[in-house]
From TrEMBL, chain B:
SMART domains cross-referenced by the UniProt entry: AAA (SM00382)
Protein name, entry field: ABC transporter related
ABC transporter domain residues: 17-255
Gene Ontology MF terms: ATP binding; ATP hydrolysis activity
Any one GO CC term of the record: plasma membrane
Membrane topology: Peripheral membrane protein
Subcellular location: Cell membrane
Pfam families named among the record's database cross-references: ABC_tran
InterPro entries for the chain: AAA+_ATPase, ABC_transporter-like_ATP-bd, ABC_transporter-like_CS, P-loop_NTPase, Siderophore_ABC-ATPase
Spans through the membrane: none
Keywords recorded for this protein, A-Z: ATP-binding, Cell membrane, Ion transport, Iron, Iron transport, Membrane, Nucleotide-binding, Transport
Top-rank taxon: Bacteria
CDD domains linked: ABC_Iron-Siderophores_B12_Hemin
Length: 343, 286
């Protein structure tokens, strides 16, 4: 048997493979270095020693402003958005037992997008943009409810859920396109940038608005971890092991929505992270949900942070939305991983 | 408590059935498959369900494992309605291995077998010494220790089935249900799996209920055979007392010759039908 790290106590016990812990630790170091890199690089370069001065609050007014007000919230936002979407994708893939699921494929992102675009076209001027996230989250929840209700046939099966989700996703896409086409040009451009997904101009207010969602959804996901592992063995075995499969499935769908929807609401419809991050994670740690969750989240965070960094740096002074580069970075890396692992 | 004392006495005197159905009817949507069935599985024995395709034996097995809700009637697990118990309660007493289970891609044998401990764990106690010990034992008993770190998809059919059985063993239950555990395996591995189950029953008194397609192997390993026809029990008893020409004719609608297994003495069913006829003197085994 492989080496395990185990803790045994009268009240508390667990065991986890050592190799996976090292992978997570390495990923964590990578994650922190990207944060530092993102804080240093930009139109104004801030060297590492100076950055530490800034972090201690002694960096001078200009540098302090660049790091604290411009770069820090933006990089944190990118990290949280990536982590949230990746976690949501992992939850969906585990629930559906199919590696081709993600919030953007089964219609959750689609619901949020349609709601957001409708809001931008019809309500934004009257209500103020501050309400956009509320609409986007409501749209995602509504889409998920619709998918669940339509897939219901004395219980839902994963395959039905995916197929109905794909249907809902394309219907939402049609709504989104129609509303954009029917709107005035200025609204269309705003809507289009939102759809690509961007953390441009992220502020501490948005960071503080997104964080609580993660603080709720993440512990819940960890709490459900063992159940998720077991339900991946199939409905019959999971039921045989004492899992209420249908109830768990509904909870997991809801969990994936409260993970993805707020991130989409604040950063727009960043695609691909939810699909690819869990796959990369599975190649780094053993197949256990409690290990895959932090790994996927870190991978997702790194992907979006790197994408945003590229968008910020490569075409200065243009600021390209992070959503563009997520696929540009993620896809080749993913293909490289698949290529390396073939035998 | 008088109730538990009573049941203890019952256990000792009559070996009360750990698993029985009372006036059980089962069906999918509008189709009734099992109608008003009373059936008691005998404690500490190997019971095999046999019957033609679509006779309802798999459906019956699923309902015994709480995977299917009866349309009417009850399944009693140690005397209690199985649907009144919590899923985990049932899973600590009864393990089910369904037909042709599929493991998630890349899952290792050890991680699979660990899943068997789920009903015994809670959030804080997710890996106790008992868990560790029973997983090691399950791997050892199924000869899977050396494959513990292998991915399930990289195993042969026989090894894979042993891994699943190891998971069910790790569940450490008194009752084990299996739906066609030997399907898709070659003869060597069929015998290997059935020997393993026979051994388990002999050493740990596990009550085993399974569906098997091979009548001859069923007759060899089962203490008790239940023949199902059209959703009802056609006959039940020790294979040597019930397996004869008329029974096979009625249950499988097939003519056959029954003779004694030269090694085990259990009844062996040789079907009539077409085939080559050779001079038995010329055969190699003589």
């Amino acid at each position: 048997m492989s080496k395990s790290f185990s803790i045994r106590h009268r009240l508390f016990s667990f065991s986890t493979p050592v190799r996976s812990l090292w992978s997570i630790l390495a990923l964590l170091v990578f994650f922190l270095s990207i944060i530092l890199l993102s804080l240093c690089l930009g139109e104004e370069f801030i060297a590492l020693p100076q950055l530490f001065q800034v972090l201690l609050g002694k960096g001078g007014q200009a540098a302090q402003f660049v790091v604290e007000t411009l770069r820090m919230p933006r990089v944190l936002m990118a990290a949280m958005v990536g982590a949230a979407l990746a976690s949501s994708g992992l939850v969906l893939q585990s629930m559906i037992r199919n590696p081709l699921a993600s919030p953007d494929i089964i219609g959750i992102t689609g619901g949020a997008s349609a709601a957001a675009v409708c809001f931008l076209s019809f309500f934004a001027t009257a209500m103020g943009v501050i309400w956009l996230p509320v609409f986007a989250i409501a749209g995602a929840l509504l889409a998920a409810l619709l998918i669940y209700a339509l897939a219901w046939n004395s219980g839902v099966t994963p395959m039905r859920l995916v197929l109905v989700g794909i249907g809902i996703s394309s219907a939402m896409g049609a709504v989104t396109t129609f509303v954009i086409a029917a709107s005035p040009l200025s609204t269309s451009i705003t809507a289009y940038i939102w759809l690509t997904g961007s953390v441009y101009g992220a502020s501490w207010i948005e960071v503080k608005a997104l964080l609580p969602w993660l603080l709720i959804s993440w512990p819940l996901a960890f709490y459900l971890a063992r159940r998720v592992n077991t339900q991946e063995l199939g409905d019959q075995l999971a039921t045989g092991l004492g899992i209420p499969v249908q109830r768990l499935r509904l909870i997991l769908l809801f969990l994936s929505v409260i993970m993805a929807a707020p991130a989409i609401a604040y950063a727009g419809a960043v695609g691909f992270v939810g699909l690819i991050a869990p796959h990369i994670a599975r190649r780094l740690v053993v197949r256990s949900f409690a290990l895959l969750l932090p790994t996927s989240a870190l991978v997702g965070a790194c992907l979006v942070m790197l994408a945003d960094l590229c968008g910020r740096l490569l075409f200065q002074p243009l600021d390209i939305p992070a959503g563009v580069f997520v696929s540009a970075i993620g896809a080749p890396f993913f293909i490289y991983l698949l290529y390396r692992q073939r035998f | 408590m008088s109730l538990s004392e009573h049941s203890l006495v019952d256990d000792n005197l009559f070996a009360q059935s750990p698993l029985e159905s009372v006036a059980l009817s089962l069906g999918y949507e509008k189709k009734t498959i099992i109608k008003s069935l009373d059936l008691a599985i005998q404690s500490n024995q190997i019971t095999v369900l046999v019957g033609g395709n679509g006779c309802g034996k798999s459906t019956l097995l699923k309902s015994f494992a709480r995977l299917l809700k009866p349309s009417t009637g009850q399944i009693l697990l140690n005397g209690a309605d199985i649907h009144s118990l919590s899923g985990k309660d049932v899973a600590r007493k009864l393990a089910i291995l369904p037909q042709g289970p599929v493991a998630p891609e890349g899952l290792t044998v050890e991680l699979l077998v660990r899943q068997g401990r789920y009903p015994h764990q809670n959030w804080l106690q997710s890996w106790t010494e008992d868990d560790e010990r029973l997983v090691r034992k399950a791997l050892h008993d199924t000869n899977m220790t050396e494959f513990a770190d292998r991915s399930i998809d990289a195993l042969s059919g026989g090894q894979r089935q042993r891994a699943w059985i190891a998971m069910a063993l790790a569940q450490n239950t008194d009752i084990l249900l299996l739906d066609e555990p030997t399907t898709y395996l070659d003869l060597t591995h069929q015998i290997e799996i059935l020997d393993l189950l026979f051994e388990l029953n002999a050493t740990q008194n596990t009550t085993i209920l399974m569906v098997l397609h091979d009548l001859n192997l069923a007759a060899r390993y089962a203490h008790n055979m239940i023949a199902i026809k059209d959703g009802a029990v056609f006959c039940q008893g020790a294979p040597e007392t019930i397996l004869d020409h008329d029974m096979v004719k009625a249950v499988f609608d097939m003519e056959c010759h029954i003779s004694a297994d030269p090694l085990f003495g259990t009844p062996m069913c040789i079907p009539y039908g077409k085939g080559r006829k050779v001079d038995s003197q010329a055969a190699k085994h003589v």
